[in-house]
Amino acid sequence: xxxxxxxxxxxxxxxxxxxxxxxxxxxxxxxxxxxxxxxxxxxxxxxxxxxxxxxxxxxxxxxxxxxxxxxxxxxxxxxxxxxxxxxxxxxxxxxxxxxxxxxxxxxxxxxxxxxxxxxxxxxxxxxxxxxxxxxxxxxxxxxxxxxxxxxxxxxxxxxxxxxxxxxxxxxxxxxxxxxxxxxxxxxxxxxxxxxxxxxxxxxxxxxxxxxxxxxxxxxxxxxxxxxxxxxxxxxxxxxxxxxxxxxxxxxxxxxxxxxxxxxxxxxxxxxxxxxxxxxxxxxxxxxxxxxxxxxxxxxxxxxxxxxxxxxxxxxxxxxxxxxxxxxxxxxxxxxxxxxxxxxxxxxxxxxxxxxxxxxxxxxxxxxxxxxxxxxxxxxxxxxxxxxxxxxxxxxxxxxxxx
Length: 402
Ligand SMILES: Nc1ncnc2c1ncn2[C@@H]1O[C@H](COP(=O)(O)OP(=O)(O)OP(=O)(O)O)[C@@H](O)[C@H]1O
Ligand SMILES: Nc1nc2c(ncn2[C@@H]2O[C@H](COP(=O)(O)O)[C@@H](O)[C@H]2O)c(=O)[nH]1
Prior knowledge:
Guanylate_kinase; transferase; EC 2.7.4.8; eleven-stranded mixed beta sheet; alpha/beta; nucleotide-binding; ATP binding
C-alpha cells in the first residue's frame, strides 16, 4: 500500500480529501484510531456489496498494511459504525441489522491478538461477535412479607427441580411449624450469626422485622456447585446489598395487587401474631416504595392471580414455551436503524435512531450496555445487554430488555 495517511484520518474526517474519496470509492466507511494505528473498515469484495475488510495505517512508519484477520467477519450490511471500545478493541454496529446480529468487536490488541501477532509474526486482528447475556445468573426475588415470594419460588422449584436451587438463608427468628432447619432456613443464635457476619461469611445480611436474616456465601456456592441456578428470597435491604456486591444477578420485585390483598394474605397465612402482622405491614409500605428505586430491580411483577404471575415469572426467566419464540421474534423485529448517532458513557452506548413519529410502536433508539463483557476472540464476546428505549418517555425508561 505505502501511501501516507493524511491528516484527515488522524484529526477527523475531511469530506473533500482525495484519499478519503478514494477510500470511500472502495467502500471503506470508518477509520478508528487505536494508539499509533488507524483501523479502516469496510471495502467491497465484488464491487457491489459493502464488506467488512480491514486496512491498518501505522502512524509511526506511515505504512498501510492488510492485517491477518482471524474469526468470522460480519456479513455485508448496509453500513456500519465503529467506536473505540477500549484500547484493545473496536465496537462495530452494523446498520439495518437485527439486534441479534448487529454487535461485533474487532480486537486489535487483546491478549489473544498479541499472542497470535507473536506466533504469526504479522499484524493480526480478530473478529468476535457480541452476544447478549452469559448463561444463567442467580435470581434475587424480593417484595413485602406475604406477597407470595415463597409460593412462587416453590412452584418454580417443583416444576424445574434440576434447574433451580434455593439459597438457604440464616435467620435468628424462631422456626414456624413445618419449617425444617437447613431446608427453609438455617435457624441460628443471634450472637453466632453476628460473629459469622463479622468473619465475612455472609454475602449480605439485614435486620428484617426485628430478626437478623442473611445469605451466606456458602449457601450460594452450594447451589452453584450442584450445577443449579440459585434463587435468593431476600428483603429489599438484602437486594440492595447484593446489587452492590460482585454477584451478578437478576433482580425481581413482587408487588401485591393492593395493600388490602397483602394484609389479607399475611393474616390468612396465620404464621404471625397480630403484633408481628402489624409490624410487617408497616414495613411493607416502605418496601413497596423502595421496590420502585431506580436501577434496583430489573423486573417488577404484580402477584394478583397466582398462575398469571407465575407464568410471567417464567417468561422473564426464559422458561415458558413461548418465551424463546417471543425473544427470537423481538430480536428479529427490532433492528438497529439505518441512520443513527452513537453517544458513549463509560461502556454504555446510546444509539439514537432517526426521528420517530409520536406513538410509533417500534422504538428506534437503543441502549447497549457493554460494561460486563466476558470472553472474546476466539469465540463470542458475551455479557452484552441491549435495551429498547420507549420513544414516548425519557431515555431512561426502558420498555423492555431484549
Ligand atoms: N396470588 C395469590 N393470591 C392469593 N393468595 C396468594 C397468592 N400468592 C400467595 N398467596 C398466599 O399468600 C400467603 C403468603 O405467601 P408467601 O408465604 O409465599 O409470601 P412471602 O412473600 O414468601 O412471605 P414472607 O416474605 O413473609 O416469607 C400464603 O398463604 C400464600 O398461599
Ligand atoms: N436480607 C435478607 N432477607 C431475607 C433473607 N431470608 C429471608 N429474608 C426476608 O425476610 C423476610 C421475612 O421472611 P420470613 O420467612 O420471616 O417470613 C422476607 O421478606 C424474606 O424475603 C436473607 O437471607 N436476607
